Each structure stands twice: as C-alpha cells, then as structure tokens.
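ok, trying the design again with the full structure, not the truncated one.
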C-alpha cells in the first residue's frame, strides 16, 4: 500500500515543475567611483552581496580584472601577436603601450564579511582564498577598495577612442566570476567573450562636472545633473564643487557599462513600447543628420523586436557613441558614430538585439558564442529586412530570402578547411576567421535551418517561448534545442549533435529521374554530405502546378505541419544511414518540368546546382 502511495506523489512533482530547475548565483553590486580626468585614473569601492544558490560549499571566489590585459606581455597581447589573422584593432598595439597608456586595476584591500581575506593577482583574474566558506544557500558580503588606470583604447574599452570619445568604460571594474553547474568560469581575458552573475547594480560615478555621463542603467538623480536628463520645465540644482555624482541603478543585469565625454550631446524619446531610448553622441562632427534620424528608426525596430523575440524587459536603453565598432552591454550599447545612416542603423539594430541574446538570455558566451552572436545576427537579418520593407533604409528593399548572404558565408567557412565545431571554446579557435564565422554565421544558420525542420509556425512560437523560459537565466545549447522540441513535438537532438558538435556538412542531390511505368516517375535523391536532413522536394508539373513531397527524417519521430498552401504528399521516413532515398511521383515523366530539393534554401546545402533537375522540352 505504502509503495503505491509514494509513486503518484513523485510523478506529480515532476509534472508540477514547469520552470527550468537549474540554480544560479546572485550578486548585488554597490560601487562608488571617483574619477580623476587629469590622470585617467579612478578610485573605486565596491560592496558585493553574494548569494550562493549552488549545492556546493565555496572555499574560493574569483574576480575578472579586465584592464590588466592592456599591458605588454599580457595573454591578450601574446595571443594577438601570435594568431595568424590578428584583429587590426589590437595586433601588436598592446606591446607598444607606454606606462601612462596601459590599463591596470590594483586591489588595495578585500574583506569577506568584514574580515580581510587573502588574494593573489593572476593578470586578469584575482584569486581569492576564503577563510570561512560560503555555504550552500548562504550569503556573503565582499568589500573591495581599488585603484585603476584607464588604458588607451585598444579594444572595446578605454580612453580617447579614434573618434575622440574620452571614456568608453566597459569591463572596467572588478567583476566577480560566475560559478554555475559547470563549475567556475575564471577565464583569463584575451579579448573575446563574457559571462556574468545575475544581480542588481547600484553605481555612483563622481567625475568633473563638465563631463556628460551615459550608462546602462536608470539615472536616479536627473535633477542634480541636468544635461537633458531632467524632467522638462523643472529646475536643475547642482551641488557645489568641481565634480558631479551620477547615480545609476541597473536591475536584473550581469554587467554595467558607462561612458563620459565633455562634448557629448544627449536626446531621449519615449518609444512606442513604453520605454525611454537615449541617444548620446558628439554633436557637430559631421554625422548629426544620421544620429537625428536614428531615434524614430530604432523606435520602429524595437516594435519589431518585441513582436518576434519577446518584450524588452527593461525601462530604458542607451545608444552611446564610443568603443571601437559596436559592443553590447545590459541596457546600453557603445557604437562608433561616424557612419552613414544604413551602417549606423545596422550596428544599432545588431547591438540592441543583444539585449535579447546574452543580456537577457544570459548564455556563457565563451562556450556558446553562436547563441549570442549567431542568434543576434539572425534577428538582425530579420529586423533589417523589415525596416527595408518599410522604406526606412535608403536604397534597400526587402528581399525574399534575406538570409542568403549568411548561407554563402557559411559555405565559404565549411569549404575553407579552417572550420572548427561550435563547441570550441571561443578563446581557443585557431583563427579569428573560424571563430567569427562559426559564432556569427553558423549560429544564425542554426535558427533559420531550425525553421525549415520544425516549420514556420512552431519556429516563431519557439523563439518567444525560448525568451519566456530562459530570460534572466543561463541557457545552453541543449536548452534552446529542448524549447523547439517542446514547441514542435519533434525530436531534435540529432540536429544539435551534428550542427553544433561536429563540422559535418549537408549536400543532397537529385541523382536520378526515370520513367517507372506509363503513369509514374521514380526519383532517387542522393545524400552526398555526412549530415542528414528532412527532405522538402518540390515538383513542378507541365501545367504549372506544384507539389511538395516531404520525407521526414526518421530521427525526428514526427513531421512538421504544412507551411503553406502548396499541395503536400508525405513520404515514408528518410533514414540518416541511407546513402540514397527513392520515391515515386504518380505522374508520367514527360509531364514533369522541374524537381528541386528545398526551394526555400533554408537547408545549408553546400552544393545547390545538384539540388535541381529540369526536364528536357
Ligand atoms: Zn554581436
């Protein structure tokens, strides 16, 4: 009797827990920064309230000290000087930095629950040995005091970028490393990817009062600073003294960025989705026209983003001129400003979309760079195509297949001999080329190809479900695949295993088309690549009608619903081991004019010419 009683209870628990069950750490930051603009140095204090939600007892913690990478001989410097295709922004520039141009963070003191702890600096990582452990479910307060020098801008962060922005303050503070179900992630910084702990930021920046500050956060004291932040018609009351303190708060974030310049101008709009968008750039340098057109286009783009990818969950967002190209942060982006309109819109759309892919869906970028850069590239392609369709991008029209360029770039990678699997740690790719195309392009193709496999309706719902299920968490490759499995009812592990874990490629061909008897035609499809796919084969008849012959992949354990009104015939399953797949068209050969595998071009087929058979007239 007892046993019978327990079993149903266990089962009901399993059904009740609809939310992902993975634990994650939490860190709330309070920081006070005092900037000395005459020396490009600042003093900082920090109080982190850290919650250990893991089932493990922690005897050590780690911090990122990114500025220390900007010193001759650092891992970032050596890596950049030894990789075969160095980023021109870095190349050997770090090795040539003079002492006053280098970056550093020097820790003056660190306390754990009020008591001093031992720490050791290992270049960009601070290793901390705790005297008392942080227990599972326990909380700890870490208080640090440090000094820092802002490096000359080399990559992303630093002073005096090439457009004359004085401070692009990214990766600028001691940031606690993330500990998750895969352990510690204390990666030394070599210029690439980021990962952080979810929490809340409360940051006070004190700086010369002639500097306008912008940051990824909500300004708490607009009536004290002015600069266009103040409520219209209300007086600005600045405290006495040469410096101003800017107080920002950023909730539900895993990083904090800011920028400052005496030549900045600031405008803001109330966007259609109820958020405030800020635009901060240097006026009067020849690109005001583009920056003044940006707000209305970003307002429109945001509406598209919310519809396709989930509602942007924060109240504000900042487009800030700074950095060395475009780089994403929570609630903000740093982008270079001297661009034509379409380039400015392109970078602003891309970086803002990172608010979905990484800033809200907080993947570990080092392990899953393709889930932030790739998904962002996919989303950027969709949004820019819609903007073009509305006539908002001068000289551009909407394209029927906007993803085509991503596919061509993927084929170039897959045939280059340099491709490495998406599972490669971002820091460890052999070339920048292989990393970039894997992360940005093969990741984008992952999604568009997913649409082919599960069908358009399940795919679109799946993207929204992914956002709802995993926002403010740390999804991995399996998690996103599982969302599409649940949405479509199909098994998709085979897709992830081939596309993500290997460099196997896809190539199908129409091998043979012959008359079987008076009324039927036999078609043999050949699998030339190692990776299998479900097959959409579209047949065009002499009278102009089309028919789709659909062979699901046996591994899918199901079939996608019809995606459009084309007549569809479902064929027996196609098995991944089979080198060929044969089916019969119930029509005589002379009435068939064309047979094409995947006319939607959503399969990343390496060789398109052999996908088509055309009848002789
Ligand atoms: Zn990106």
């Amino acid at each position: 009797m007892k046993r019978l009683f327990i079993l149903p209870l266990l089962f009901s628990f399993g059904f009740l827990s609809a939310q992902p069950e993975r634990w994650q750490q939490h860190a709330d930051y309070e920081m006070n920064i005092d900037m000395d603009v005459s020396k490009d140095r600042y003093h900082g204090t920090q109080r982190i309230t850290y919650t250990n939600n893991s089932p493990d007892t922690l005897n050590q913690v780690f911090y990122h000290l990114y500025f220390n990478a900007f010193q001759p001989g650092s891992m970032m410097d050596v890596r950049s000087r030894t990789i075969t295709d160095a980023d021109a922004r870095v190349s050997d520039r770090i090795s040539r930095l003079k002492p006053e141009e280098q970056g550093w963070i020097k820790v003056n003191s660190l306390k754990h629950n009020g008591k001093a702890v031992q720490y050791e600096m290992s270049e960009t990582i601070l290793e901390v040995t705790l005297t008392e452990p942080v227990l599972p479910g326990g909380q700890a307060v870490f208080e640090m005091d440090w000094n820092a020098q802002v490096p000359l801008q080399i990559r992303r962060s630093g002073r005096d970028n090439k457009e004359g922005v004085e401070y692009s303050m990214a990766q600028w503070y001691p940031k606690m490393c993330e500990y998750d179900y895969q352990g510690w992630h204390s990666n030394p910084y070599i210029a690439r990817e980021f990962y952080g702990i979810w929490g809340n930021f409360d940051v006070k920046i004190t700086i010369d009062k002639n500097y306008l500050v912008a940051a990824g956060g909500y300004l708490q004291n607009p009536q004290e600073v002015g600069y266009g932040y103040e409520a219209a018609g209300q007086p600005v009351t600045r405290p006495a003294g040469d410096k101003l303190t800017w107080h920002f708060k950023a909730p539900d974030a895993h990083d904090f960025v800011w920028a400052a310049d005496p030549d900045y101008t600031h405008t803001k709009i109330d966007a259609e989705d109820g958020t405030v968008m800020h635009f901060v750039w240097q006026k009067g340098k020849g690109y005001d026209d583009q920056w003044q057109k940006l707000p209305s286009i970003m307002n429109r783009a945001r509406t598209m983003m919310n519809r396709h990818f989930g509602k942007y969950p924060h109240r504000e967002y900042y487009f800030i001129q700074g950095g060395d190209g475009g780089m994403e942060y929570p609630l903000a982006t740093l982008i270079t400003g001297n661009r034509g309109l379409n380039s400015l819109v392109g970078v602003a759309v891309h970086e803002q979309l990172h608010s979905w892919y990484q800033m809200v869906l907080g993947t570990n970028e080092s392990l899953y760079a393709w889930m932030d850069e790739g998904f962002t590239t996919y989303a950027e392609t969709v949004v820019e195509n819609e903007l073009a369709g509305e006539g908002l991008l001068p000289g551009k029209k909407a394209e029927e297949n906007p993803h085509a360029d991503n596919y061509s770039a993927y084929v170039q990678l897959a045939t280059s001999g340099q491709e490495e699997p998406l599972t490669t740690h971002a820091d460890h790719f052999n070339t920048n080329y292989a990393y970039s195309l894997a992360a940005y392009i093969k990741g984008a193709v992952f999604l568009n190809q997913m649409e082919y496999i599960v069908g358009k309706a399940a795919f679109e719902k799946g993207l929204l479900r992914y956002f709802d299920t995993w926002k403010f968490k740390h999804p991995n490759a399996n998690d996103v695949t599982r969302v599409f499995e649940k949405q479509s009812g199909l098994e998709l592990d085979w897709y992830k295993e081939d596309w993500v874990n290997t460099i196997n490629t896809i190539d199908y061909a129409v091998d043979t088309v012959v008359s079987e008897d008076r009324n039927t035609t036999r078609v043999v499809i050949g699998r030339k690549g190692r990776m299998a796919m479900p097959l959409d084969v579209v047949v065009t008849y002499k009278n102009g009608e089309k028919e789709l012959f659909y062979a699901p992949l046996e591994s899918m354990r199901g079939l996608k619903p019809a995606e459009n009104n084309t007549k569809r015939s479902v064929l027996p399953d196609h098995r991944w081991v089979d080198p060929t797949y044969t089916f019969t068209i119930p029509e005589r050969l002379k009435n068939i004019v064309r047979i094409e595998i995947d006319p939607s071009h959503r399969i990343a087929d390496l060789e398109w010419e052999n996908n088509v058979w055309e009848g002789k007239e």
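Keeping the full-length input from now on. The longest helix spans residues 432-454.
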